[in-house]
Amino acid sequence: MTQETSTAPKALGHIRVLDLSRVLAGPWCSQNLADLGADVIKIERPGAGDDTRAWGPPYAKDAQGKDTTEAAYYLSANRGKRSVTVDIASSEGQALVRELAKEADVVLENYKVGQLKRYGLDYDSLKAVKPDIVYCSVTGFGQDGPYAHRAGYDFLIQGMGGLMSITGERDDLPGGGPQKAGVAITDLMTGMYATVAVLAALMHRDRTGEGQHIDMALLDTQVAMLANMGSNYLNSGKPPKRWGNAHANIVPYQTFACADGHIIVATGNDSQYQKFVEAGKRPDLGADPRFATNPLRVQHRDVLVPLLAEMVRERSRDEWIALLEEVGVPCGPINDLADVFDNPQVKARGVAIEMDHPAAGKVKLVRSPMKLSATPAMAGLPPPMLGQHTDEVLRDVLGRSDAEIAALRGKGVV
């Protein structure tokens, strides 16, 4: 586990992000921008903060092994940011946010459609004080359409957006039925798409001087990320069904039970299939004309897969992995997270990092997977305590005196 340090230049070191978002989709976007070097100022409710601060256990532990107030969920999406508490329901708090927006390049928010307009913090209002602002709104259903004013949550969108209709075991097998993904994949992908959109808008601004409003919707993202499944439906007119750990278009591309566990076999072409059955001492399955090509294997999967399952059960998991790696057939184990973080490749890539933290002493996090040779992505700051940087930001960015900050705090504005 490594502590991230670097003196390399930051790709977004010239960018300031005013982050009004909370929970996951918006914070995931702003964390990406922070990893790339942006100064991210996270605006939170005084006394409460981001909802995910309380989404525990587990919590980060202090030096005595006792729980802190920092939920692991919150820690996962908020490194690299500065926390400022502002009551945006107050007129003085709204004025502070408008001042901060004037000093920012990007505003990120995930309030319900129209909610920030009541506070004078919507795109049109902030564009009036910063004409070239890049303003990114993240909602469940977008800024228009019949569902625009509905609240959107990842689980609901996984269902509404079709993901759960193709995730889970086949209906005719034990345990069959719709299943959500193990992480909030729609939120995470919306955060990733929002990151790309913000970077594109910044490039446009740098070329033209023009800012813009970005409208990101969880439902749009979920439908877009159906990828080949969405294309399969649009080009066939037939809704895809659940295949569990199998693949709709490739056979064999699934899990198999070994003598002592499970293995994933992912044969992407006919040559790999031939090597697979030869390694299993079943050359007859390679010579059988019913299984000669992938389209034929898909057609005859109900005959082929039980034969392959019988073949795989004859060896242990480690035997299969060694055998298939030797002949170039993609394969692998199904790891739990203890296995993942103990994996030599994961360790070699420095995926797990450790950061100093004011309450926990040290916190363990997962580093950004973006590896840039000249401007490496770096966590920079640990996930902030609630309001940790309020005085610093108001003083250094807005020029407020200590007395003025104290007065704002006395009135509950910050």
From TrEMBL:
Source organism: Massilia cavernae
UniProt KW keywords: Transferase
Molecular function in Gene Ontology: CoA-transferase activity
UniProt-recorded name of the protein: CoA transferase
One Pfam family cited in the UniProt record for this chain: CoA_transf_3
Domain of life: Bacteria
Gene3D superfamilies cross-referenced by the UniProt entry: Crotonobetainyl-coa:carnitine coa-transferase, domain 1, formyl-coa transferase, domain 3
InterPro entries: CoA-transferase_III_domain (IPR050483), CoA-Trfase_fam_III (IPR003673), CoA-Trfase_III_dom3_sf (IPR044855), CoA-Trfase_III_dom_1_sf (IPR023606)
